[in-house]
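Subject: sequence -> structure tokens, single chain

Hey, anyone have a minute? Need the predicted structure for the following. Not urgent.
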Amino acid sequence: MRRSAARKVSVLAVAATVLSMGAAAPAPAPPGAPPGPVKEPVAVGHGGAVASVDADASAAGIEVLRKGGNAVDAAVAVAAALGVTEPYSAGIGGGGYFVYYDAKSRTVHTVDGRETAPRSADEGLFTENGKPIPFEEGMTSGLGVGTPGTPATWKTALDAWGSKRLSTLLAPAQRLAREGFTVDPTFRAQTAANEARFRDFPATSELFLPGGQLPVVGSVFKNPDLARTYETLGREGVGALYRGPLARDIVDTVRTPPVRAGATRTVRPGDLTVRDLAAYRTEFRKPTKVSYRGLDVYGMAPSSSGGTSVGEALNILEGTDLAAATQAGYLHRHIEASRIAFADRGRWVGDPAFESVPTRELLSQRYADSRACLIRDDAVLTSPLAPGDPRDPAPCASGGTAAPTTYEGENTTHLTAADKWGNVVAYTLTIESTGGSGITVPGRGFLLNNELTDFSFAAANPAVHDPNLPGPGKRPRSSISPTIVLDPHDRPVLALGSPGGATIITTVLQTLTGVVDRGLPLVDAIAAPRASQRNQATTELEPGLWNSPLRVELEGIGHGFRQNPEIGAATGVQRLPDGRWVAAAETVRRGGGSAMVVRPAGGR
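Reply:
Had a minute. Here:
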């Protein structure tokens, strides 16, 4: 017999408090580095909480909370700081999705801040002579740059739910950009991975390869151009990025990418215009919602596929007692539910302004049940699996044409924040690939996104409609999955999200079921080795599973695997029954994350 949701949440929350105290200790600061906030993967206490991948960014959010700001204020401050310390993952040159729980009304709201294609874009945006161009030529180009949505997201969220001025919230990030932060091994490694293309753009090389060299671990990295850009946004408002000199600088950079003389790289220009920037708008979306084990799970609706895919997979898993399953049985069900959700995602999900997305039908339990019956305990589904039809569910249907999963850049970032009033934010922001387009706006201190490469470059099968082809002003499909879970009384239980391109969906799904079904403390569910199946012939495994007897056991029933050294970098917060918050982040991935609370347990 299943436990009640309230009892289950209570038990898990207490376990989180006890077990999280044994989390890994932070790595020591490099010798000679300036003092900075300590990086801890878990924190428990009162007054609010913040979790991100970076200690300086989390500290910016805690600073805002301590000065009376709310969770929305803190989220904007953290996001701005991540634009300084995680510039290859996020920044004002990109976009994202913002999910907010309002404690007063006990309701969840979402903002779609996804980048948009130029008005001139059509289905042939990434084709030439009838064939798709090489992915690299879309990735490192003006062609892949969409109108940024991040600054507009900040304004939308602050106008609706914030309590502080933007200039106040940008101050910690502005200070961080001006005074610098300590380079860690992850920042250096990401720079090294981009070194060749960074060198082809003088403004990027000057900023991220100081003195023509890779930044040294332990050195201080400064970005005075970004500090000045933040100062402009704080003084004039985010409209300064969409109109005026800054907007013209962005457009000029996209339309005439500033490439180094003698570079042999093919760098295609884009067609973004000042009209495209001026016309940009965020969208309030009704959140997705499914019931799972008596809890309400809210996510991001299309243009992201995160909410529909996580929700469909949870509905598929609802009929299986994952708490009683063996570890192999649990992973088998996780993999197969993910495979099915991705099969349906590829066929049905796109920008709802252009596509008729059957969101309600994809999230119906009736449809999930018609798909769940495909799963067997002693065999593996064939990939790529054909989609079903949520508008007319047929039990165990397996015909039709499969839609392959397109590549999505994996170096996004996620932050989670909560305040003393009980408001919660789960916010994932991105510039797409690690380093985005590789193109820095000269004199402005930030990289431009290459989000338009999330579109399908061409339909995989011309006979089957692809909802993710480019279009004028269209938002490319995303896998971003910021998620908030409420109890039966509409109070927050936990919130979480992750970077990782299409692996975001499987990371959020595995972390959620790890907490709710497997009884793991949030920090341990985040740290658990991951499996990611995206309707492909093989499932990706992190080393902890690749090197485990579980792999052999799963291969025995037909699973095929390939190794991925690191999947995602999640963060989350959890509300305990006594009102304290648990903030949790990675223990190892990306060098470990940073969890902080306003008043740690035991403090005053």
